[in-house]
Amino acid sequence: MGFIYLLPIIGVLFLIITGFSAIMRSVLEVEKPKVFSYNHVNEKHKKIDFGIRIIFTIIILISIIYMYINPDTYENSLSLIYIIFFSMFFIATETSRAFMEWKHAENPRAYIFTISQLIFALAFIWIISYFFLGII
């Protein structure tokens, strides 16, 4: 029943993030990407992104196995560990995207949009984790 109270918060956050993206896209004159697509800049970016996803999948699987073997060690900090893993994954993928956009994209300001979204999203993840979930 407690998650029902999170729905308005998630809705407001969705509106704020969508509004921020729309404003940044119009200011930087960056086109809107397709919904639910990876939008790789080129083939090299696709391979790098795939490598990052494989590495983080392996890290998470190893951490799950390790936490299962030693449950007492991570009993109180499990949520924090997953938020840190997710943040590291998000930073790695978006930084690689920003670098590829900086070097190879048609619109030279596309990387600024990616970096601004990265910073904005990370701030929201950590704020929600701290104030609403009490994790950090």
Describe the structure using short key phrases:
136 residues, mainly alpha, 4 helices, 74% helix
Walk me through this protein's architecture.
There is one protein chain. This protein is mostly helical and 136 residues long. It contains 4 helices and no strands. The protein has helices at residues 6-28, 43-69, 78-104, 110-132. Helix 2 (43-69) runs antiparallel to helix 3. It is flat and about 50 Å long. The protein starts with 5 loop residues before the first helix and ends with a helix. The mean pLDDT is 84.
Task: Offer a quick outline of the entry.
The chain is mainly alpha-helical.
Distance between the termini: 23 Å
**Share in helix:** over 70%
Structural class: mainly alpha
Total strands: 0
Order of helices and strands: HHHH
| Coarse shape | flat
Question: What profile does the largest beta sheet have?
Answer: none
Give the uncertain stretches in residue-range form: none
Q: Nearest-angstrom radius of gyration? A: 17 Å
The chain-level mean pLDDT equals: 84
Please work out how many helical segments DSSP would assign: 4
Q: Roughly what fraction of the amino acids lie in strands? A: under 5%
Please give the structural blueprint.
Layout: H1 6-28, H2 43-69, H3 78-104, H4 110-132
Helix pairs in contact: 1-4, 2-3, 3-4
